[in-house]
Design a protein that fits this description.
36% helix; 6-stranded parallel beta sheet; binds ligand BV8; alpha/beta
Length: 242
């Protein structure tokens, strides 16, 4: 289905486009979305229970096993046309801000730069006490910080943890400044990320949601494209280039 001409015009006229992506943009790369990530061994766990500091402190071995499983899953995935389309969009519009809730690094592998990782990065290890990123060669089930001896944990933001300040401030400033806000492949259920669309709307940005399953917030968007990101984005980006 051809995108709405109103959205194409808005993209062509935009000074600044801001995109927020969620697990849905990586679904076509074979990375399960956050809500259906629990396959097989993990089916009995709720990600909201596992992605918390409490779960890590209670059972660091289990949490490390889960994240190593996810790292393997993502390492074998490739960016898809949706990721590449956003990397292309950055070359077309005067200013482009890409904010992702995903921790899989697929935007960067598709060529996007300056990606704001709102919820951190799956492949970084951080000291659970000091928060610093730690490079190491440890093979222990639960690696430890060479500086203070605390457990290392994956460099993601867990439920109940604050968003990194720079990512938070930069993202909300971009949402407030942009002319077009694209919400792509997210259920828009997790805050504060889900609040970015509201800020864009309050600052008169044209807003669009791209999701094959329209979310509960779809009615709040100027345009709701009920399509997969890998199908809708390449066409949307090329039409906005002319
Ligand atoms: C915070 C990283 C405060 C980890 C993630 C009680 C205590 C504390 C906080 C709270 C609380 N109650 C509520 C909160 C706030 C909480 C929250 O929002 N909870 C929700 C559940 C209500 N938020 C937080 O805790 C945040 N921090 O509030 O801090 C604070 C302040 C100061 C000091 C201390 C604390 C932190 C939240 C970050 C959690 N980390 N990920 C990891 O990955 O392991 S969240 C994780 O789920 C994702 O990153 C993402 O953000 C989120 C939702 O996932 P989605 O990306 O939307 O994916 P989902 O599966 O849901 O949906 C996929 C969509 O794609 C679907 O709609 C589907 O239709 C669509 N789709 C499918 N295929 C395609 C597609 N779309 C396009 N194309 C396709 N092909």
């Amino acid at each position: 289905m051809r995108p709405d001409p109103g959205l194409i015009t808005a993209l062509r006229d935009a000074r600044h486009v801001c995109a927020l992506t969620g697990a849905g943009i990586s679904a076509e790369s074979g990375v399960p979305t956050f809500r259906d990530a629990q396959q097989g061994l993990w089916a009995r766990y709720d990600p909201h229970e596992l992605a918390t500091p409490e779960a890590f402190e209670r059972n660091p071995e289990l949490i490390w096993e889960w994240y190593r499983w996810r790292r393997d899953l993502v390492a074998s995935a490739e960016p898809n046309p949706g990721h590449y389309a956003l990397a292309r969009l950055a070359q077309i519009v005067p200013r482009f801000t890409l904010i992702t809730q995903n921790v899989d690094g697929l935007h960067q592998r598709a060529g996007s730069t300056g990606v704001i990782e709102f919820h951190g990065n799956l492949f970084e290890d951080r000291c659970h006490a000091e928060g610093c990123v730690v490079e190491h060669e440890q093979t222990a089930t639960v690696p430890v910080c060479p500086d203070c001896g605390a457990s290392l944990r994956p460099g993601v933001v867990w439920f109940g943890e604050a968003i990194p300040e720079t990512a938070l401030d930069t993202s909300f400033a971009a949402a407030a400044d942009c002319d077009v806000f694209l919400s792509i492949g997210t259920s828009s259920l997790v805050y504060p990320a889900a609040g970015l669309a509201d800020v864009a709307r309050e600052h008169d940005a044209v807003t669009a949601e791209i999701n094959p399953n329209p979310t509960a917030q779809a009615a709040g968007f100027d345009f709701a494209i009920a399509s997969k990101a890998g199908a809708a984005l390449p066409e949307l980006v090329e039409l906005s280039a002319v």
